[in-house]
Amino acid sequence: MEVVSATGQALLDLTDALMTIERQPLVQIENQRATVGAQLSAQRTIASRLSSLRRIASDFSQSGSLSPIRRFQVSGETSSYRATAGNTAAPGLHTIQVHSLASRQSLASAAIVGDETSFNPAPGPEGATYKFQVQAGETIEEIEVSVSADADNEAILAEVVSAVSSQSELMSASLVRVGGGEVRLLVQAKGSGEAGQITGITDLEGSLFSQLQIGSGIDENGNLRGTVQQAADAHIEIDGLEVKSSTNRIENVLSGISLSLITVSEGPESFEVQRDEDQVLEEVQSFVESYNAALDEIRNLTRPSDDEGNDRGILAGASTFRNLRTGLRQLLTDPLEVNGVLKGLASVGIEADREGRLSINESVLRTSLQTEPETVEELIGGETGVAARLETFLDSYSRVGGIVDQQIEAAEARQDLFDSRIAAFEETLAIREEALLQRLAELQTLIGTLTSEQNYLSSRLGTSSLLGS
Q1: Are 274 and 72 in contact (CB under 8 A)?
Q2: Sign of CA pseudo-dihedral 74, 79, 82, 83
Q3: Who's near 148: CB < 8 A, 6+ residues apart?
Q4: Is 303 in the same domain as 340?
């Protein structure tokens, strides 16, 4: 029995040794497939970096008010208004005095006892329906109110409030409890200032608003009946120029300057518009960081072997990405012509080291923003600036179907090919191993038979020896 076991194990070991030899080509293919997978991952990483850099370059390539270089802030203490500056603003000092604020028109009904039904003009058993027309300027709308037969005065006003809330674009309504069990209907124009004032409320079915004494006719002051607050435009004075507005939020009252009026001022209040250097520095820093991240990634993945032949980048043999690295460095360091003079980024405080990585000389950049902001804008942004050139360069690499996409598609195709070869090779090896194991089983059977015969002959020979003695 021990002979069979030892021989069988030897045959198994021989089979494993043979299969290890036959798997060597498969191991080589799997290693090649792993290399392609690593290259594919590296290419996708570069694609992501380039896409981010291209987006930022696109932002910086915008000119005028869209440029990230045009960031402004407002300084100066003002109590009657708040000023904000957009990208279209210009540096300057301005004085503003708020003479009056804009207000919405408000109308109120006469006071009525809430729990009485005297206000309900004997509706039928199914209740009553009232219709009235509201006019503001050239706009006219109709509103319908339904009330139940047993509705008291407060319930009727509540239905009016609900109907106005759901049907009107011109006014809002509220129910006000004024004390002593009395209620009033308060109506307010939705539009601010004189342009939004209500010019009439007319009953079309029933006499609801006539009874409420709102909106029909003119009072002794020449206002719409029921007026408790007149519509008014805001009135301000900017640098000696009078300006009126229907709202207390005045957009672009000066180019790029918006005002939020708070209260009437006792006298003129000043504010100054300045370039927001801190914000511009943050914007430029984001550009620099994105560029450096892309350059570092490409340089790391395309690095050559060290002196001992180790630490080679996975894309070191790819000329496409080596050329990309060279192109990026050249674009950001080559000078551009600005107003007839060749200037580089270093002249405005954006410096490059020998590897092409960028850094910001904050002092130089701040000085440039103060003394020659147009040069900074044209050099970095605009149609012919560094950012525009970078965007154009990156477009050929990072767009859909561009150079990097083509490289990725080629790597994916190679990966698929290796997967097919590996699958076919594994199938062949499985068949080969099955054949070897089948042969092993046959040899084990043969060895068992021979061993049995050997034991039989040995026993026979032993018996013959005993008889002869």
Answers
A1: yes
A2: negative
A3: 127, 155
A4: yes
Q: Which of 406, 421, 445 is the last residue of a domain?
A: 406
Q: Is the dihedral of CA 78, 83, 87, 91 positive or negative?
A: negative
The whole domain housing 338 covers 2-66+278-406
Query: 201 pairs with which residues across the strands?
Result: 134
> What amino acid is encoded at 257 in this protein?
I
For the chain, 469 residues long, the average pLDDT of each consecutive 10-residue run is 51 74 83 87 90 90 81 89 90 94 93 80 68 92 90 90 94 93 93 92 89 83 89 95 95 91 94 92 93 91 82 86 89 83 89 91 93 88 85 88 88 88 84 79 76 76 60
| Domain boundary residue, one of 211, 244, 275 | 275
pTM: 0.68
Give CA–CA dist 100/119, Å, rounded. 39
